[in-house]
């Protein structure tokens, strides 16, 4: 065979990635279980590049140059395993199977182990940027062996998005499931970013009394500053949109029940297992869950709350500036939490992930792309051992400057009964990290009281237990 890469699974993502490879000069073999999709691709886009259509797995494998590079773009889960089972007998040692679907990183670890037994490289690749990114240049997060990256990396670098400085938005993240893990946390951060923006909108609407169109204008203003990002940009577009059927703001005719596909939930589940507090991401996932409980919300509408009082014009403008501060500071916290999770995952699974490199490849192509990521990259590049982004001097200065406004916004939201779980959780995390003493000492006392779980003292080495049911003297534990 002569095709440099093959793509099997030609729904929107696979088709667009295949076209992206072809547009970049690669000879691409294409295959889909339902052959009509393969023919449709050739008919519609065959002129864009050098495609080889394959109607059977055998034809597909035969079309590929050796060692083969075969990208699987089917529905994540069982279909991925089915496709792997189908192709493995047709492959040889040294071939590279790439899974570009949204796989759970534990599945990727298992598949990598299983294929390694056959001498086949399995590369789990996180791809962000949706349909358009797949075609125009996504952010690509490849895991797998170093050896497989040597063969695959240069091709991925060609089809990936490019940051403003020209750097391709892909890099070898680490072995086995590292790429899918980082993609998962990317999506968790995306949930948090979206939730924080939604809370800012809610406050500007309910407390400042702004219309959706005015909030769109406010966001456009923010988008020229430090919050400059794809998500703020599209939020302004959505808010400025008017529903054609009713003439109302689009946002007012959409049901307020947020859905989710599961990667945010995976991020939180994994964070719980790793013991990493990703409270901002968790609140974002829970906020979507809460919104979906329609019956519960309907029943609870009778619960008392404060009477909302909309601010006057001058106060509203000052309040909007404070919301920008709260949004920015909360965003820094979300990223600090997400990067903490990546570091912890890297340590737990032995991945040795370059955090600055992760920030670098999120600068373009993906949903959370933002000017902000350049600052995160710079923070890790200048201090690779940085334990939290919040401790980077620049972020520390900015959150410090923002804190008065951040606190005022969270307090005003509580006073007016506007739910801001993201802002509030971010602030609580910030204060939790800052605290000289946490009430965890009391928690330890409670645990020792009811379960003899023991505690450590501030003044002496060792573990101790107090005889709570007896004379309350202290004894060394163990
Ligand atoms: P889908 O997730 O809708 O999957 C459809 C494809 O899977 C079709 O090609 C279908 O073949 C194939 N397929 C299925 Br379903 N079961 C199969 C089986 N047992 N054997 C062989 N093929 C099978 O496609 P998509 O929306 O293009 O997404 C592809 C992957 O990319 C998914 O993992 C998804 O989670 C991920 N994704 C990522 C993003 C992103 O922004 N990064 C966006 C969207 C999707 P058929 O035509 O014969 O039914």
Structure description:
The chain contains 20 helices and 10 strands. By secondary structure, it is of the alpha/beta class. The strands form 2 sheets. It has a 7-stranded mixed β-sheet with strand order 3-2-1-4-5-6-7, sandwiched between helices. Helix 8 packs across helix 12 and helix 8 crosses helix 13. Bound molecules: nicotinamide 8-bromo-adenine dinucleotide phosphate. The site of nicotinamide 8-bromo-adenine dinucleotide phosphate has 23 residues, from helix 1, helix 4 and strand 6. Pathway: Carbohydrate degradation; pentose phosphate pathway; D-ribulose 5-phosphate from D-glucose 6-phosphate (oxidative stage): step 3/3. InterPro entries: 6-PGluconate_DH-like_C_sf (IPR008927), 6PGD_dom2 (IPR013328), 6PGDH_C (IPR006114), 6PGDH_Gnd/GntZ (IPR006113), 6PGDH_NADP-bd (IPR006115), 6PGdom_BS (IPR006184), NAD(P)-bd_dom_sf (IPR036291), Pgluconate_DH (IPR006183). Homodimer.
Count of helical stretches: 20
Helix content: 55-70%
Number of strands: 10
Quaternary organisation: single chain
Largest sheet: 7 strands, mixed
N-to-C order of helices and strands: EHEHEHEHEHEHEHHHHHHHHHHHHHHEEE
User: What is the terminal separation in angstroms?
Assistant: 67 Å
* Large-scale geometry: globular
- Assign the structural class, choosing from mainly alpha, mainly beta, alpha/beta, alpha+beta, or little secondary structure: alpha/beta
Bin the strand percentage. Answer: 5-15%
InterPro entries: 6-PGluconate_DH-like_C_sf, 6PGD_dom2, 6PGDH_C, 6PGDH_Gnd/GntZ, 6PGDH_NADP-bd, 6PGdom_BS, NAD(P)-bd_dom_sf, Pgluconate_DH
Pathway: Carbohydrate degradation; pentose phosphate pathway; D-ribulose 5-phosphate from D-glucose 6-phosphate (oxidative stage): step 3/3
GO molecular function: NADP binding; phosphogluconate dehydrogenase (decarboxylating) activity
EC number: 1.1.1.44
